[in-house]
Amino acid sequence: MATSLLNLLLMEVAAIVSIVLLAILVVLSSYRRRSGHPALRLFVWAASTLFLPLVSYAVSAAAKWDAARVPLLLAWTVFLQMLRNTIDTARSSSSTISGSVSSGSKFRPSVEQLARMGWVAFLIVSSGGAAGSPQLTGVLLWLWVLSLLKLIHRLVAAELAKNSFAVGLNAYLVADYMKQLHGRGQGGGGVHDDVQVPPYLVMGEEKLHIEARPQGYRIGRTTTPPALSVDAGRVVTVDRIWRLSSYGDPLLASCPQLKDLCLSYALFKLQLRRFVGCPLAEAGCHRALAFVQDGLLVGDSPERVFRVVEAELSFLADFLYSKLTVFYASGWWFPALNSLLVLATWVSCLAAGGAIVHDMTSPGTALAVDYQVLRSYLQNHDTVFRVIVGLDVLVSVSFIAAIVFTEGWEIANYVCSDWMKVSAVCEYALRPSWRKSPWARRRLGRVLRLSSIQRWDDRFCQMSILQLRLCYCGCISRQVDRIAKTSVAVPAAVKAAIVDTLRTNNGRLGNGELSLIRNGVAEKLLWACRICAGDDGNAEGSVSEQILVWHVATTLLEIKRSEGSHRRPDDDGGDDDDDGESDTVVVATRLSRYCAYLVALKPGLLPDHRAWTEELYEGVVEEVARVLARCAGPVVRYERAATCLGGSMNATLRKAAKLGRQLVEEVGGEEVAWKVLAEFWAELILYLAPSENVIAHAKSLRRGGEFITVLWALLGHAGIVCRPEITDI
């Protein structure tokens, strides 16, 4: 009996841990930066995976020493498997559709789920049902069948979506549509009321006449413009939404952000081409640049362009890593059938709970008799008995509550999602009867005003290299850096500076040289934009080393500014630490720290080779730790730090010290220096953004996305998909 109690306690603890972790993972799936952390997913996977073999052992052992507890253990097993399927189906759905950018086999998750389902069925059947009541055994079998139906339903929907022009083949269709569009000269224009709005596809393109040709898909029934006129009534484009708004539609007037949401959705479809390897017809096209310059960047607030692109990337992250794509792609039948299955799951779980309570309390049932035997064994230890019974009840209720919650959360997530809003707006645009009905507009308006659970995390990480460290020890210190980094909201001043730079340079990218020339300091500082690796003047240029040189120089200037004030120069602060600082200081320091973070922890998003960047960073930080520990003292002072770094054995730090002294002494004052730095960093971050490394950006989207990915997407819509050589600037 003592052994059985120990096994039972172990089972209950494992069950409670699995329930809590799975429920947390479902909730955090709405917050991508948190749910995508590998440590969290590994912990949840380990806890829930180990539970099944533990149950198998307990069931086989219980058949010998305590057969009455087998139905209760099986009930927990079925409940846990239902929770696992809710999470795993999301991964299998996304990986099946977007297998081109996913790692691993796209069929692996579904095979694993089916194997686990088969094993659970074997456990139920092999128990024979003799130990439990027929009601409980019947409900467990029904829950297993229901879980299998949901699994098959979602896998079938994912396969249908993969082969549909609405999802799986959509990027190829949109790519050929854009080739036709730019071939007819209609790809330009802005996205405001005074400029022609481009007819980018929003929804319904799968209903067009599509013909496969040797060079791709031909959309429309004619080869001469306008090719889409025959099917225009079936498809919703951006210009159609804009015309509806310009006519004074009441719904779009009451929710003006819906226009931008539809634009974001259309841009998401354009961006998806890069993730499946389709060429961009607008790459290097002046009309694409005009679309961004005269459309997206027009307006009083620079926040709008970032809001549009961030919503676009949210759609992209959902497409790659969530099951919302399957909901959207399968038409009305998938959400309707899924809602019926969820309702049946709720009722069945409550019925299972009732059957468990019946077996616990009804005289003569095996479980009730087992409790009586347990009470007799414990004799005067009633408290222990109550704890054991309470844990049984707690685990069972927790499983049922977790299933009801996760299934309901999934539906709420879909109903409140931006996918639902775009679908509703497009349906509204296609149905004149809805637009004429005040009742339909009111009901639709209430749905469209629901706040989306999943939102882009408008923050970026901050790191400072010039800080006191006890030592630096390779990969161990790098993990410490990951923990020590801070995250702050992207300041409005940073967004405004980037938009102003993009407008001023008119689409030209520079690694900082253009800003130095514009500010009249190129003669003194241009050398710092033409940095070669190490001291060899004939070596290749290194953007990573340039970032570190300018970052350390910026930090030196920040130390100089902080002397005599109460503010610490290495304070990355929170969201409110910009109070009292000028916009130029905010822009320069925040972008400097973000670029240092990219060098330290995200080298794959930068132009230089990853191995070179990592080696460079480790060498610089190791030398910083050594120099500051020896020379700087407990508080880093400008003069002492600049002198120590200037005498360092590391070439990068010597260059940084030289640049820092020039910024302090030669550019014409502190305000001018900060203006130079702000414009330099705004130009450099735009220079870093273009890249053909789509995989790196896909991985960052899984973890919540990076600020540089927003700029990468924005420049892609402007036709800028690669950065120029430094000699070409």
Features:
3% strand, single chain, two-stranded antiparallel ribbon, globular, mainly alpha
Shape: globular
**Radius of gyration computed on alpha carbons:** 30 Å
Kindly state the percentage of residues in helix: 55-70%
Q: How many runs of DSSP E, i.e. beta strands?
A: 6
Q: What gap, in angstroms, lies between the N and C termini?
A: 80 Å
Let me know the largest β-sheet.
Answer: 2 strands, antiparallel
The helix-and-strand class reads mainly alpha
pLDDT average, as an integer? 78
Strand content: under 5%
Taking pLDDT < 50 over at least 5 consecutive residues as the criterion, the unreliable ranges are: 92-97, 99-108, 190-195
| H/I helix tally | 31
Assembly level: single chain
* Arrangement of strands in the largest sheet: 1-4
